[in-house]
């Protein structure tokens, strides 16, 4: 495909446990594109709420209190235009789904900040880095092109 990809109207962000990367990405997308893009997130396995996610997202004014981790199987909806996967296992799951549903799949390799070690501040910095990288990728991928297509 030449030029920028079209902006999808429905996106599923997916990672391993839907507790860190995919909920961050979906919340950022909802904040940047309110009522413009239908956004959900899911994981391959059921995760737990992560207090570091709450803390780093609150730093940029995003409340994560309503997020509840869910698996692909627990999604109530389908019909996504795009699945953006943030972990290898989620990418494999999404590719399996794309064999049945007509959906584009993009893989954005993203570090799992739960693997970070050190002081609380060092761990928080890992989460901030992931948050900020996702923000940049989302802005770049979903921004409207100012140039006419064609």
Series of H and E elements: EHEHEHEH
**What percent of residues are in strands?**
5-15%
Mean pLDDT: 90
Largest sheet: 4 strands, parallel
Distinct helical segment count = 4
What's the quaternary structure here?
single chain
Distance between the termini: 12 Å
Number of E-type strands: 4
Shape: globular
Task: Give the helix/strand class.
Answer: alpha/beta
As a percent range, the share of helical residues equals 25-40%
Instruction: Indicate the radius of gyration in whole angstroms.
Output: 15 Å
- Strands side by side in the biggest sheet: 2-1-3-4
Low-confidence stretches: 145-150
Task: Provide an overview of this structure.
This protein is of the alpha/beta class and 150 residues long. It has four helices and four strands, in the order E-H-E-H-E-H-E-H. It has helices at residues 21-32, 51-58, 88-100, 120-142, and strands at residues 10-15, 38-43, 82-85, 104-107. The chain has a four-stranded parallel β-sheet with strand order 2-1-3-4, sandwiched between helices. Strand 3 (82-85), helix 3 (88-100) and strand 4 (104-107) form a beta-alpha-beta unit. It is globular, with a radius of gyration of 15 Å. The protein starts with 9 loop residues before the first strand and ends in an 8-residue tail after the last helix. The relative contact order is 0.21.
């Amino acid at each position: 495909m030449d030029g920028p990809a079209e902006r999808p109207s429905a996106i599923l962000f997916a990672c391993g446990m839907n507790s860190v990367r995919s909920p961050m990405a979906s919340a950022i997308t909802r904040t940047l594109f309110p009522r413009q893009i239908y956004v959900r997130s899911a994981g391959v396995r059921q995760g737990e709420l992560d207090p570091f996610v709450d803390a780093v997202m609150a730093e940029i004014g995003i409340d994560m209190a309503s997020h509840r981790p869910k698996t692909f199987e627990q999604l109530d909806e389908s019909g996504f235009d795009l699945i953006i996967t943030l972990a290898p296992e989620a990418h494999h799951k999404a590719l399996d789904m794309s064999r049945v549903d007509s959906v584009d799949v993009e893989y954005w390799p993203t570090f799992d900040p739960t693997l970070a070690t050190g002081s609380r501040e060092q761990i928080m910095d890992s989460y901030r880095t992931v948050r900020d990288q996702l923000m940049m990728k989302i802005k770049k991928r979903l921004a409207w092109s100012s140039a006419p297509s064609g």
